[in-house]
Amino acid sequence: QVLQSDGGNYCCSVNAATLALIDAGIPMKDYVCACSASFIKDTALLDINYLEESSGRSAELVVATLPKWDQVVLLEMDGRLHEDHLNKVLDTAVKGCKDVYAILDAAVREHVTETTASLSLDT
């Protein structure tokens, strides 16, 4: 049960699942990072919230990528978007995935460093 949500549930779930797999020691060739984007009033928006998702004024584009390999592994759009705006929204979402990757990678490296230090103190 979701107690409170401000949008981006799918993307958050993908990013959390990636971290869970890494924490479990599952070998992966790259992180799977997800981000949403939209196009409202001639502007590409990244990581849209619930109000922007549900307004119905524009399409929501959800993208999941393998950032190190520059591969899109999921592309889903809800709503209609003129093809002239698709590349701008897609580029915004892919850049957002790379930004998410940088944050997740920094958190994983910090966790590994802390865990390694903790294990060396226990012995």
TrEMBL record:
<protein>
    <recommendedName>
        <fullName>Exoribonuclease phosphorolytic domain-containing protein</fullName>
    </recommendedName>
</protein>
<dbReference type="GO" id="GO:0016075">
    <property type="term" value="P:rRNA catabolic process"/>
</dbReference>
<dbReference type="InterPro" id="IPR015847">
    <property type="entry name" value="ExoRNase_PH_dom2"/>
</dbReference>
<dbReference type="GO" id="GO:0071028">
    <property type="term" value="P:nuclear mRNA surveillance"/>
</dbReference>
<dbReference type="GO" id="GO:0005730">
    <property type="term" value="C:nucleolus"/>
</dbReference>
<dbReference type="GO" id="GO:0003723">
    <property type="term" value="F:RNA binding"/>
</dbReference>
<dbReference type="GO" id="GO:0071051">
    <property type="term" value="P:poly(A)-dependent snoRNA 3'-end processing"/>
</dbReference>
<dbReference type="InterPro" id="IPR020568">
    <property type="entry name" value="Ribosomal_Su5_D2-typ_SF"/>
</dbReference>
<dbReference type="InterPro" id="IPR050080">
    <property type="entry name" value="RNase_PH"/>
</dbReference>
<dbReference type="Pfam" id="PF03725">
    <property type="entry name" value="RNase_PH_C"/>
</dbReference>
<dbReference type="GO" id="GO:0034475">
    <property type="term" value="P:U4 snRNA 3'-end processing"/>
</dbReference>
<dbReference type="GO" id="GO:0000177">
    <property type="term" value="C:cytoplasmic exosome (RNase complex)"/>
</dbReference>
<feature type="domain" description="Exoribonuclease phosphorolytic">
    <location>
        <begin position="30"/>
        <end position="96"/>
    </location>
</feature>
<dbReference type="InterPro" id="IPR027408">
    <property type="entry name" value="PNPase/RNase_PH_dom_sf"/>
</dbReference>
<dbReference type="InterPro" id="IPR036345">
    <property type="entry name" value="ExoRNase_PH_dom2_sf"/>
</dbReference>
<dbReference type="GO" id="GO:0000176">
    <property type="term" value="C:nuclear exosome (RNase complex)"/>
</dbReference>
